Structure formats: structure tokens, C-alpha cells
């Protein structure tokens, strides 16, 4: 599906200044908003943005100040792993 977003020319010119790919910028903004709202999983976000690896997506999210949520279960597993290694 293709979606068309209408932006007045003067705003589009300003937003695309410096060689910014306005179509990509709009896609990223939409995808991030949907991800943060819980409408997309990380896998779906990665697919939508065309990243081949999870690491590419992690870098993309970190560059925008978005960290993966850490659950108490994640912390428990990390502590168990550290204990198993004698740390």
C-alpha cells in the first residue's frame, strides 16, 4: 500500500533542506510513533524500515534516544548469568 501525505511546498522545501530525504524522514517518524504506541513489534519496525539486522535497528533506536524496555525478568536472568560466571 502506498500512502500519500500532502505537505505545502514551502514547508516541504524547508524540511528537505540539506539533502534530507523527506519521504524517508516521514516513514521513520510514522514507524517510530507506531512502535512507541505499541502498534508495531521490533521485528515489524525493522521490516518496515528495511533494516537487515537487529543491530541496525538497535543503532537506529539508540540514535533517537529510544532504549529497549528492561523487565524485572531480564534483570533476573542477567544476575543469574553473572553468578554462574562467578562475577
Any descriptors?
single chain, 87 residues, elongated
Walk me through this protein's architecture:
It is a single chain. This protein is an all-alpha fold and 87 residues long. The chain has one domain. It is built from 5 helices and no strands. The protein has helices at 9-15, 22-36, 42-49, 54-63, 72-84. The longest helix is centred in the middle third of the chain and has 15 residues, at 22-36. The mean pLDDT is 90.
Global shape: elongated
Helix content bin: 55-70%
> Average pLDDT value?
90
Amount of beta strand: under 5%
- Write the element-wise H/E pattern from the N-terminal end onward: HHHHH
Integer-rounded radius of gyration: 18 Å
State the end-to-end CA separation.
51 Å
Unreliable runs: none
| Class derived from helix and strand content | mainly alpha
Largest sheet: none
Number of self-contained structural domains? 1
Count of alpha and pi helical runs:
5
The tally of strands reads 0
Task: Offer a quick outline of the entry.
This protein has about 90 residues and is an all-alpha fold. It is built from five helices and no strands.
List the helices and strands and how they pair.
Layout (H helix, E strand, L loop, with lengths): L8 H7 L6 H15 L5 H8 L4 H10 L8 H13 L3
Amino acid at each position: 500500500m502506498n500512502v500519500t501525505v500532502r505537505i505545502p511546498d514551502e514547508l516541504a522545501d524547508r524540511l528537505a533542506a540539506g539533502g534530507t530525504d523527506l519521504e524517508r524522514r516521514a516513514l521513520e517518524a510514522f514507524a517510530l510513533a507506531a512502535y512507541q504506541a505499541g502498534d508495531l513489534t521490533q521485528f515489524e519496525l525493522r521490516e518496515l524500515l528495511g533494516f537487515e539486522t537487529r543491530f541496525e535497528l538497535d543503532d537506529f533506536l539508540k540514535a533517537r534516544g529510544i532504549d529497549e524496555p528492561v523487565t524485572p525478568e531480564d534483570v533476573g536472568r542477567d544476575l543469574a548469568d553473572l553468578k554462574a560466571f562467578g562475577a
